[in-house]
Amino acid sequence: MGALSHLRVLDLSRVLAGPWAGQVLADLGAEVIKVEQARSGDDTRAWGPPWAHDAQWGDEPQSAYFLAANRNKKSVAIDIRHESGRDCVRKLAMQCDVVIENFKVGGLKKYGLDYDSIRAVKPDIVYCSITGFGQTGPYAHRPGYDFLIQGLGGLMSLNGRPDGEPGAGPVKVGVALTDILTGLYATVGILAALAHRDKTGCGQHIDAALLDVQVACLANQAMNYLVSGKAPQRMGNAHPNIVPYQDFQTKDGYIIVAVGNDGQFRRFCEALGHPEWADDPRFSTNAERIAHRQTLQGLIQGVMRRRGTRAWTIALEEGGIPCGPINSLSDVFDDPHVRHREMQFKLPGGGPEAVSLVANPLRLSETPVEYRQAPPRLGAHTHAVLRERLGLSCAEIEALSNARAIRV
């Protein structure tokens, strides 16, 4: 029994931020009912190749993108534009503790599925709305996508090679990181709202915005600007506040070195064969190393090219210096530590082959994460959910299907 096995969640979201929040809750034991557009489902079902095939999906192979954020969920395919369809969704909401949605601001009001409408009949509902820009403000009605928000929220101004270097220019992060972070913040907000409900009996509305999250997650870089008044610049793989904290080219590749204090720097200099650098007034403290960054980087780079990445990794680890290679994904999933932590696992689907997925990183000693089922085909649970939760008969479900209000 997962920590959240007493909860039921109605997931009206699609793409990534909302589904990610729903998947985290599902992994922790919550029953998550994913309501999808009856004909096409979640947008990401079509975001392939690559595709995964399994007997449970029949002629509907799943995109890898959809698989990333929808395990442990029940798929119910309902057309909320149809009166009977949205009536089913409202009734399901009445039986849920949490609703997650990422429609445009006000987009669900006309269907009677917005927060005010649901709260009127279920005051203890925890209702999380995820949008690009939030429920208020001059941009509230704009659509928001991760790439756009990475640019607007300042992340791309920090990411990429500095001006003057080959390949200079702003670059987005290779994963939709703002969506993921928003999903995690939404999950934290949902759990906080549930704790408040447990004490007071009152639900509440959570307004989660991608742009807010992106600005919040600028973290030390935002504070560097607010304290100094100077906007940080792109630095490639270097760090604005610590030196040396970057990648260096070796004889056969690259290695990341993360020196976090003066003691580590001294041991680093010893491993390089230049202990005198640690006592050089230009490099003896982190502040001085930042002031003489380019000089020190040049000296280190000249030494690092003499040996291969593996040789340096062994030597630096022996000296207690945080370091490591820049792995490809094949390297990542073949790494002995990643394998030991079981970050890749297989979940049985409906056919002879299991579906490979990436594990949830949470390790709870008493209520461990549960992997109950692979991401479902569109509408896989429509019949069961409507029958079990709403008490509809087979004939009533068939009538809804014939009216194209649902898909079974």
From TrEMBL:
Instruction: Recite the UniProt keywords alphabetically.
Output: Transferase
Q: Name one GO molecular function term.
A: CoA-transferase activity
Which portions of this protein are annotated as coiled-coil regions? none
The source's superkingdom equals Bacteria
Q: Which organism is it from?
A: Candidimonas nitroreducens
Check the record and name the PANTHER family matching this protein: SUCCINATE--HYDROXYMETHYLGLUTARATE COA-TRANSFERASE (PTHR48207)
Give the protein's recorded name. CoA transferase
Alphabetized InterPro entries for the sequence:
CoA-transferase_III_domain, CoA-Trfase_fam_III, CoA-Trfase_III_dom3_sf, CoA-Trfase_III_dom_1_sf
